[in-house]
Amino acid sequence: MPLVYDELRRLAAYHLRRERKDHTLQATALVHEAYLRLIKQDQVNWENRTHFFGVAAQSIRRILVDHARGHNRLKRGGDRQRAELNEHLAHAERSNIDLVALDEALTELGLRNERAAKVVELRFFGGLTREEVAEYMGVAVRTVADDWRYARAWLAQALSGEA
Questions:
Q1: What backbone torsions phi and psi does residue 138 show, to the nearest 5 degrees?
Q2: Per-residue pLDDT at 89 exceeds 70
Q3: What are phi and psi of 82, to 5 degrees?
């Protein structure tokens, strides 16, 4: 954990900067919760740094979405905002992203194109580069770029409510 803590903390802070201003989850708590989920996975054989951060991305996604669902449940659906998908989704400094809606759309995308959904999860929640995603998934960088482009377009349409 000491070897990856700082990087996980940077990743957590990155995600929390995009959250609403009154967000109660802090980067340290997000890292600790992700760590607790990661150490419970005793069946995982960590292959490399990219593999670890791929799994960490899944944990961070689940934690943020669960937290958002809890907040929305408390507010009876209030304070939800539309996700703005753009060319720089993976590296957006500050966006109004409805993580619950994004999670639902990403789950639906996963049913249609599992690889494209995984690319979004790794880039958006894991903060991995195209090259790191390609290495993790064992595909070409061009394939990751194509999946990323497809997923962004599909998610933009799904989140806009268009058929």
A1: 70, 35
A2: no
A3: -70, 145
What's the rounded Cα separation, in Å, for the pair 91 and 103? 18
Nearest Cα residue to 16 out of 54, 58, 64, 84: 64
The number of residues in the chain equals: 163
Cα separation, 160 vs 86, in Å, equals 13
pTM over 0.85: no
* 70 vs 68: CA distance, rounded Å: 5
Cα separation values, 92 from 14, 75, 108, 124, 162, Å: 9, 26, 23, 9, 24
- DSSP readout, 99-119? HHHHHHHHHHHHHH-HHHHHH
Q: What is the DSSP letter of 124?
A: I
Q: Please name the residues in contact with 93: beta carbons below 8 A apart, sequence gap of 6 or more.
A: 17, 18
99-155 pLDDT, tens digit per residue, is: 788 889 999 999 999 999 999 988 988 888 899 899 989 999 999 999 999 999 999
Over the Cα atoms of the chain, what is R_g? 15
- Encoded tokens for 143: 């394939």
